[in-house]
Amino acid sequence: MLQGNDGPVPASWMASDFDAYPQQGRSYVVDIPHRHKYRMGSCGIAGCINTDGSMISGSKIEKMITTMGERENGLGAGFVCYGLFPDYADEYCLQVLYESDQSRAGLEEYLSDRAYIIKDEKVKTVAVPTMKPPFPLVWRYFIRPKTNTESFWRKGLDEEDYMVHMVMQINQADNGAFCVSSGKNMAVFKGSGYAKEIAQFYDIGRYKGNMWLSHSRFPTNSPGWWAGSHPISILDWSICHNGEITSYGVNKKLVEMAGYKCSLLTDSEVITYLWDLLVRRHGLPIPAASFAMAPWYYKDIDRLDEQLRQLALQLRITYKEAFLNGPFSILVGRSEPNVTMIALADRKKLRPLVMGVSEDGNSVFAASEECAIKAVQKDAETWAPKAGNPVIVRLGEGIVRRGTEAPFQGVRL
Amino acid sequence: MSVQTVVRLPEKYRPVVDHELCLRCKKCVRACSYEVLEFKDDRIRPKPGCVACLRCVYECPAQCITVKEMEPQFAHHAVFDPVLRRSIIAQSNSGGVLLSSCGANVEYMDIFSHLLLDAAQVTNPSIDPLREPVETRTYLGRRPGKVTVTDDGRIDLQSSSTPLVVMDMPIMIGHISLGSISYNAQAALFQAASELNIVAGTGEGGLHADFYKHSKNLCAEVASGRFGVTSHYLKEVSSVEIKIGQGAKPGHGGHLPGEKVQELVSQTRMIPLGTDALSPYPHHDIYSIEDLQQLISVLKESTEYQVPVGVKIAAVHNVGAIASGIVRAGADFITVDGLRGGTGSAPRVIRDHAGMPIEIAISAVDQRLQEEGLRDKVTLCASGSIRSAADMIKCIALGADVVGVCTAAMIAMGCTVCQQCHRGMCTWGIATQRQDLVDRLQTPVAAQRVVNLFRAWNEELKEMLGAMGIDSVESLVGNRDRLRYIGPNPRIAEILGVKHSGEGWG
């Protein structure tokens, strides 16, 4: 839910001024840093959800993520808010980072060919003196794809896949525009800077939603790059990832075969596409998809009852390219069909992941460190989900899985 | 009137006996099936024809024999090197095609040596396989691409189930037929495969009655000669492979010289004693990809869809497109055999000059299948000079699910790569059917040595995976990010899809 109106575009954001930012060395905002394929990092993650649907202010998540200041080095942070646009809940919300007004004009032409733009507005941003310019122009569009056009049916895609295709096309092109979120009733706010700075830049406290996820990064080997920050999002999926995927080359093969284009230069990108592929497109229940990404060891699979053993083997063998090897803990958000938070750590649990729930059971938290939870909910009861065992929390349903259950609890055969 | 054309070639090797130490026990004379050594005037004396098989060295109780490589006798010439001149003289002698064995004996670029592996430092933890599990279990067969979920959200296990063979390590002992090798040698390989729980190829010679006990670890070869192929045989084994070609001799069929077709081989292959078993070059029922599709279907029907059916091809220039056609024709796994792959007998011209190295071939197939969205449907097996765990690991990172190994297993059993397999006089009892020679190979010892070798390789694989921060081998398959090129020709790196050493992640 938006608080207040963004109002007219302030003069300081007009094209001429915007383009006048001095280029200080190689500082990448929207264009893909040249020669870089992807980067890796280790980071802090935090999330919170109110399962009764009541609203959470952005200040709360800001407090959570900034409590873990040790885990970031100022090279990227971001937030994603779900349940943000109840008035436009049926429209896809595109948030786009622009290099210039010129690139905005270009993309808007592209968009209006393919979608009805129900509403568009500038996303309010505030100059933060400590941040390194240039800053992108951030724009928001509520769109509905034109499904009655020739170019739509020629693609042979359904509406959601068409959206994925559009986002891939936008982000592949060298057009000074990057689409950072594209789901319904949600939006991503991210950039290059400390979590505190990004929160200030977007004035994150002015937004309220049912669920927030956030990320602060400590990448290695990487340029500062706005679009490459987390959360990484496609459709209503968003991922905050702490870790490094040692199987990246393998995972990339699978998502590329399925038509996704890896353009964000981060290993975390494949995780986002894997969730979309396995859950939305292949229809796997969340525990089954989690098992494919963080499977049990064969020696443990062999001890399962025959039917579950068959299920485990089939998931592991069929989706061996979806197996995320190496250390990770991730927070996954989704708004369809209901706002859902998934928390998952790798099968060795080489990255931290702590969950917490308020005394009344309504507010559920996830974080890299317990301090982030205690900072906003002193009375929270905390627990550690097991390695490779997903936590699922859903609006209206509460805690569906605590991450300590048997692997396929809730999966029907 | 016939003309005497044969000119004697200069010797390449000569056994040298230290007569001071020699016990005159004559073991070496009996050891040499090539009859190079004789006992004369109270001394062991060499005759021409030494192949450096080293059996005499091994047998000599006084350790007084060394085999000396002779200096080339030819006048130096930069273009007509001694090897070429020897070939020309040999062909002028016989007027025939020169035969040889083992893999290509020319220094075609060994790309494995130009590839470096990655390891984890700081940003991800390396894993110690002695303390934490690192998995090497591998499945061979077709994969459905997705697990079927019904409209009401149930997972349907039946409809996405395919026949798979489980192996404890991503190593397959390649197809070496009974005939090209001895009964004892094949028994040892099969026994080792059973003990390691991996798969061994039967070769195209059918399966001897005694070996059915290993059938769950065997892959039956259906080659153009169809020797010994019966429906009973196909139903017993764990997988079936149609052999279209082999890396050592792409475009050729199997060559088994009549000297090797003794009673045992004749019965297993169902061919007359002493006849050359020369398999047709193509399968005469496969002149096109549609025909291959039919044979795949026939084999699947005859095995009642219980075992995976694969196709083996030699690495040729268009291997990527061919492999994609094979997947579409229904193959559950594909074996690609590289230029340097071994053979029991092949014309030297084709062995040394046709095909492409396995590093490039497997990479091309992996990339092509990925481009066509087929890579998650099949198992890829790469063979052709996988000489060490390092080669195996690099080959997996270039796209192989499984590697096929033959020559290294032969060496474990005693082979010294003297390249005389086609003559059938192997002093080590491996590539021969002469009973007195076969008896030299003790099956249990040979089997144990093969077991030891592959266990060691598998441990090395785990060590390297752990160092890379990977705890299961499937996460290395085609993971080119973990490889870097350091050789002389960056164009190769480009074709392999591997970055140059010094280029980081981003």
Walkthrough of the structure:
The complex is a heterodimer of chains A (about 425) and B (about 500). Helices cover about 25% and strands about 25% of the residues of chain A. The relative contact order of chain A is 0.18. Chain A contains 12 helices and 19 strands. Chain B is α/β, with parallel strands linked by helices. Chain B folds into 2 domains: about 15-95, Alpha-Beta Plaits (2-Layer Sandwich), CATH 3.30.70; about 115-500, Alpha-Beta Barrel (TIM Barrel). Chain B has 15 helices and 21 strands. Chain B has helices at about 25-30, 55-60, 80-95, 185-195, 230-235, 265-270, 290-300, 320-330, 350-355, 360-370, 390-395, 405-415, 435-440, 445-465, 490-495; strands spanning about 15, 35-40, 45, 65-70, 100, 115, 140, 165, 170-175, 200, 220, 240-245, 255, 275-280, 310-315, 335, 345, 380-385, 400-405, 485, 500. In chain B, strand 18, helix 11 (about 390-395) and strand 19 form a beta-alpha-beta unit. The longest helix of chain B has 25 residues, at about 445-465. The model of chain B has no long low-confidence stretch (mean pLDDT about 95). The chains are: A alpha+beta (about 425), B alpha/beta (about 500). At the A-B interface, strand 1, helix 7 and helix 11 of A face loops of B.
Shape-level CATH architecture of chain A? 4-Layer Sandwich
- State mean pLDDT of chain A (0 to 100 scale): 88
Q: Quick check: average pLDDT of chain B? A: 93
Please tell me the total number of domains of chain A.
1
- CATH class of chain A equals Alpha Beta
Structural class of chain A: alpha+beta
The gyration radius over C-alpha positions of chain B equals: 24 Å
Which word captures the global form of chain B?
globular
Count interface residues per chain for the largest interface.
A-B, 53 and 45 residues
> What is the name of the CATH topology of the largest domain in chain B?
TIM Barrel
State the major sheet of chain B.
8 strands, parallel, barrel
Shape estimate of chain A = globular
